[in-house]
Specification:
Length: about 450
Amino acid sequence: MTAPGEIIHTGAAEYPGLDRWRELPLKQQPDWRGHPDFQSAYGELSTNPPLVFAGEVDKLKNRLAQVAEGKAFLLQGGDCAETFDDVTADKISAKVKTILQMAVVLTYGAALPVVKMGRMAGQYAKPRSSDMETRGDITLPSFRGEIVNGFDFTEEARIPDPKRMVRAYHNSAATLNLIRAFTEGGFADLRAVQQWNKGFMENPAHAKYEQIAGEIDRAVQFMQACGADFESLKRTEFYAAHEALLLDYERALTRIDSRTGQPYVTSGHFVWIGERTRDLDGAHVDYLSRVRNPLGVKLGPTTKPETALELIEKLDPEREPGRLTFISRMGAANIREKLPPLVEAVRDSGAKVVWVTDPMHGNTITAKNGYKTRRFDDVMDEVRGFFEVHQAAGTYPGGLHVEMTGDDVAECLGGSDVIDESAFDGRYESLVDPRLNHKQSLEMAFLVAESLTK
Ligand code: PEP
Ligand code: MN
């Protein structure tokens, strides 16, 4: 018999220590354990098939080990928060297409393989600065992403609903299915991607990238003339990543791999811990230390070098190649001052992590007309700062982590085909943070490639 109010966690895979997080300080979760649908939603997720296979997760870890060695580059991109309505063929293909286009340009610029990863197929949970939101005289729970509650400012929408975790699972499955179909089925053909990039170049605003675009084109023609095996270039690996914020979801989707007997989060290949939940003694760090996936941790401007070292100790005690990625998000104004002590401390400790720049989250401003936005120039300045810091420290700048979309939205200011504040009213779609649109994303890739080939 279960006593009233007692929580039983049915069905989730058992492994020593996997429930330790329940006794630790746990931030940014909805209060829904007593909800009448919690147990059935949790139980359903616990028995559903995994979204990713542990063998793929291990393969990704090997790819990231190459990045840590300076032999590959990592590109992570996608929405701040995915939405259920945007699980459509058009939206998903536009995002995948944009990431593939960026990857081709970066591959040329870095002359290295690019590991491609979407903030996709699971990026549904959001941390918030406050538990409650007040408008006028009404106060309701904050929107925590569609895996928890609805965006509309009504009591009905804002009450956390555990059944949403099941919807998020099925939407992630549908998204991943289409990503796999695209990237395995010929959509990723290098020649097609090159054709799309020619479309970008037809815009006179992008004429300044003509030289590098021409070089890439000639490189593709050269490969073709040499009889390169384009069959193998029709497919590409593409990995799914999200913030492992909602621990009920992550715990229910954890499985013990039959090959190795080890636990894996099977909600995505790569998961990261956000800036607000990376407390050393908190639930998130403990839980993720116990699963075998490659992990990311966001590091903001208040991070101390000792904290970075302790995070390595907790999350990668074996110093496993590819296990840990630090995603710095300092802000353009801070990066040249705040990143060096972290990079140097990690370098001097002998640990090898992947260093990635998130040039979005430290550069958020509020536009005069009230929209949350970011300036393209600030974003690019942080990217440049990231490369400078690593060059000075003799360490490897391993990749980019960006909030972007494949659509022609107007959420970030600037770019060569300029977006200004007046465009926000019609074309601002993000429910949370502003994303680079299709053109701004490609422009970033060209700028990075240009600086890498100089
Ligand atoms: C995010 O990646 O959307 C996010 C919330 O980032 P951070 O944890 O760095 O603030
Ligand atoms: Mn965000």
